[in-house]
Amino acid sequence: MKTKMKKIKLNLFLLVILFSVMSSCMTTTKIANYKITPIENENIDSTIVIRPNTGRVDGFCFTVENLGSEPIFIDWDKSFLLVNGVSYRCIHAGIRFMEKSALQAQTPIGPYSTLSDCLFPTDNIYMNDVYQGWMQKPLQSKEGRYSIAILQNGKESNLQGNFTMTEEETKVPMHNMSSTNASATTLIYVSSALLILSLLLLL
After folding, report:
1. Which of the residues 71, 118, 163, 188 could staple to 59 if both were Cys, CB 3.0 to 4.6 A apart?
2. In angstroms, rounded to a whole number, what is the distance separating the alpha carbons of residues 136 and 126?
């Protein structure tokens, strides 16, 4: 009887630890909500629509919708952000920070399709040290202008407008954060796995 009670107490203790570890897998971060005011783009087909998209505070996040029957392409190397009167070359989501100076492949958007992405100024991306790795500063303003280079039927034009950003805090899994948290995240999940294994062995 005593052995059974001891196991129950130990199981409850392990469950409490497991809950604490899993809770620590969540972290608080800021997200950005955008509003945009497109200006008139004389060379852009009316079937190309840009909409704001919730994203990160260190870039401008958007969705481009292709309502036409022909594919279009985004030329990232000719796209830029204008913040505080300064024009910034940008990379888009998925580009490794260490490759921020490299040429970026164009991204196609098929007929009747959408693409959600972000523009991040390369000047805000830097190597901090060997321990923290690559870091990224937030935008230096809550508002600015965007210019997204579009290729359509061999013709180049720019999808342009103004954006404003508001911030709010939310909880997200640590694995959704930057690679600088990779080691801590791995340790948390390994600890969780060991606790679960111990729990199963005691049942």
Report:
1. 118
2. 6
**Burial (CB count within 10 angstroms: exposed 0-12, middle 13-18, buried 19+), residue 32:** buried
Distance CA 62, CA 49 (A): 10
Q: What is the pLDDT of residues 114-159, one digit of tens each?
A: 999 999 999 999 998 877 789 999 898 999 999 999 999 889 999 9
CA distance 174 to 146: 30
CA distance 150 to 59: 19
pTM of the model: 0.70
Do residues 92 and 100 lie in contact, with contact meaning Cβ atoms separated by under 8 Å? Answer: no
Q: Residue 113: beta bridge partners? A: 66
CA distance 197 to 203: 10
From 122, 134, 119, 135, select the one nearest 59 (Cα to Cα).
119
Per DSSP, the chain holds a count of helices (H) and strands (E) of 2, 11
12 to 16, 129, 201: CA distances (angstroms):
6, 42, 14
Could you report the per-residue pLDDT of 12-70, keeping only the tens digit for each?
A: 555 555 555 555 556 667 788 999 998 878 778 789 999 999 888 899 999 999 999 99
Q: Do the Cβ atoms of 101 and 132 come closer than 8 Å?
A: no
Element (H, E) at 194: helix 182-202
